[in-house]
């Protein structure tokens, strides 16, 4: 498996000043938008009253996304895939002079069924502030339903700030088998557009998600899925995952850890290294402490802005490093692994690049790494 680096970028798009709600049903991928040059010349159209003219069809044509409108997370379908599908649908309808062929999927749904093509409404059921800038949000699912995500999958959030549409990808931290809810860990940035939108959330608010996308192809006790099959048999029986997470990069690691600890037959060793600025900014401490009690789970913390560990609770002092995770520290961690590790990496682009470089320096090649 090659090293695949997916960066999350915000997507921005102008929001028309006025919109006919019925108009939203036409093109889910581009937000039901009409071409800007056509919509400037014509008022919000009523499909039933429109004439079959070239100008009318131009107003119905989906608008091609700009490069900045792709969140860069490897979504399948990507916003460009959705656009191509909508364009083909429009061309077919135009050739047949039949606008009813455009009355397909809606841009958004309220049936709480997650869908990669359309945005679905979910209600915020609780907001918990974990640090000064990071929050844990819980969303309701009807009855005992579940998102049914595969491990490591992410979903895409849509928000509108000052007339601009923004999309961002987040990985739920709730267990795969969680029923009736899902949870997301989000860090808010002072100048972030999406952060401005997220900070307004309160219990009962409705927000829109689509997905799922991506994922890590983990299988319990299937160690030959990860690394070199030329290794001796005893090295393949019980391998080890080495997880390197910076900040909210912890999110995709949590469901994988929970999946392993929930399966009594899974004997995979796991070493998680969480990198945070200070002890107070470690997320989900109670959950991580509970996971660390399992025989096959080890958790280390690397605190870049701590100069001394003496004031930390004694239960953290032995498994915490002060300073930044560097090549020497990486060598110590890799050498402490009980088996040849397969490495999962999630953080900023700079963090991911640094970790890949350190791992290569200590003998871990790209085919033994996976970058979220």
From TrEMBL:
<dbReference type="Pfam" id="PF00970">
    <property type="entry name" value="FAD_binding_6"/>
</dbReference>
<feature type="binding site">
    <location>
        <position position="195"/>
    </location>
    <ligand>
        <name>FAD</name>
    </ligand>
</feature>
<keyword id="KW-0274">FAD</keyword>
<dbReference type="Pfam" id="PF09791">
    <property type="entry name" value="Oxidored-like"/>
</dbReference>
<keyword id="KW-0520">NAD</keyword>
<protein>
    <recommendedName>
        <fullName>NADH-cytochrome b5 reductase-like</fullName>
        <ecNumber>1.6.2.2</ecNumber>
    </recommendedName>
</protein>
<feature type="binding site">
    <location>
        <position position="185"/>
    </location>
    <ligand>
        <name>FAD</name>
    </ligand>
</feature>
<dbReference type="GO" id="GO:0090524">
    <property type="term" value="F:cytochrome-b5 reductase activity, acting on NADH"/>
</dbReference>
<dbReference type="InterPro" id="IPR001433">
    <property type="entry name" value="OxRdtase_FAD/NAD-bd"/>
</dbReference>
<dbReference type="InterPro" id="IPR019180">
    <property type="entry name" value="Oxidoreductase-like_N"/>
</dbReference>
<dbReference type="InterPro" id="IPR039261">
    <property type="entry name" value="FNR_nucleotide-bd"/>
</dbReference>
<feature type="binding site">
    <location>
        <position position="168"/>
    </location>
    <ligand>
        <name>FAD</name>
    </ligand>
</feature>
<dbReference type="InterPro" id="IPR017927">
    <property type="entry name" value="FAD-bd_FR_type"/>
</dbReference>
<keyword id="KW-0285">Flavoprotein</keyword>
<comment type="function">
    <text>NADH-cytochrome b5 reductases are involved in desaturation and elongation of fatty acids, cholesterol biosynthesis, drug metabolism, and, in erythrocyte, methemoglobin reduction.</text>
</comment>
<keyword id="KW-0560">Oxidoreductase</keyword>
<dbReference type="Pfam" id="PF00175">
    <property type="entry name" value="NAD_binding_1"/>
</dbReference>
<dbReference type="InterPro" id="IPR017938">
    <property type="entry name" value="Riboflavin_synthase-like_b-brl"/>
</dbReference>
<feature type="domain" description="FAD-binding FR-type">
    <location>
        <begin position="117"/>
        <end position="219"/>
    </location>
</feature>
<dbReference type="InterPro" id="IPR001834">
    <property type="entry name" value="CBR-like"/>
</dbReference>
<feature type="binding site">
    <location>
        <position position="187"/>
    </location>
    <ligand>
        <name>FAD</name>
    </ligand>
</feature>
<comment type="similarity">
    <text>Belongs to the flavoprotein pyridine nucleotide cytochrome reductase family.</text>
</comment>
<dbReference type="InterPro" id="IPR008333">
    <property type="entry name" value="Cbr1-like_FAD-bd_dom"/>
</dbReference>
<feature type="binding site">
    <location>
        <position position="194"/>
    </location>
    <ligand>
        <name>FAD</name>
    </ligand>
</feature>
<feature type="binding site">
    <location>
        <position position="170"/>
    </location>
    <ligand>
        <name>FAD</name>
    </ligand>
</feature>
């Amino acid at each position: 498996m090659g090293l695949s680096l997916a960066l999350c970028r915000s997507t921005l798009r102008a929001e028309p000043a006025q919109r006919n709600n019925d108009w939203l049903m036409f093109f889910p991928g581009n937000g039901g938008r009409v071409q800007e040059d056509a919509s400037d010349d014509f008022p919000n159209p009523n499909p039933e009253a429109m004439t079959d003219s070239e100008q009318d069809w131009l107003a119905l044509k989906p608008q091609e996304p700009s490069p900045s409108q792709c969140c860069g997370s490897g979504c399948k379908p990507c916003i460009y895939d959705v656009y191509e599908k909508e364009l083909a649908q429009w061309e077919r309808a135009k050739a047949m002079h039949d606008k009813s062929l455009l009355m397909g999927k809606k841009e958004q749904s309220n049936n709480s069924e997650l869908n990669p093509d359309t945005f679905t409404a979910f209600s915020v059921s609780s907001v918990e502030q974990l640090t000064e800038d990071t929050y844990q949000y819980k969303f309701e699912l009807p009855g005992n339903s579940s998102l049914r995500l595969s491990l490591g999958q992410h979903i895409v959030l849509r928000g509108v700030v000052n007339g601009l549409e923004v999309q961002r990808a987040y990985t739920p931290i709730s267990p795969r088998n969680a029923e009736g809810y899902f949870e997301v860990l989000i860090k808010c940035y002072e100048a972030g557009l999406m952060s401005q939108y997220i900070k307004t959330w309160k219990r009962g608010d409705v927000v829109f998600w689509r997905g799922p996308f991506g994922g890590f192809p983990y299988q319990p006790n299937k160690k030959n899925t990860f690394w070199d099959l030329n290794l001796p048999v005893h090295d393949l029986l019980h391998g080890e995952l080495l997880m390197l997470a910076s900040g909210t990069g912890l999110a995709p690691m949590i469901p994988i850890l929970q999946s392993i600890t929930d399966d009594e037959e899974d004997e995979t060793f796991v070493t998680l290294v969480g990198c945070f600025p200070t002890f107070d900014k470690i997320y989900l401490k109670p959950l991580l402490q509970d996971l660390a009690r399992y025989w096959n789970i080890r958790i280390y913390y690397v605190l870049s802005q701590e100069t001394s560990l003496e004031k930390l609770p004694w239960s953290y002092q032995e498994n915490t490093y002060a300073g930044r995770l560097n090549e020497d520290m990486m060598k110590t961690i890799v050498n402490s692994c009980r088996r040849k590790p397969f490495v999962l990496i999630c953080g900023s682009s700079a963090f991911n690049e640094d970790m890949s470089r350190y791992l290569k320096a200590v003998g871990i090649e790209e085919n033994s790494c996976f970058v979220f």
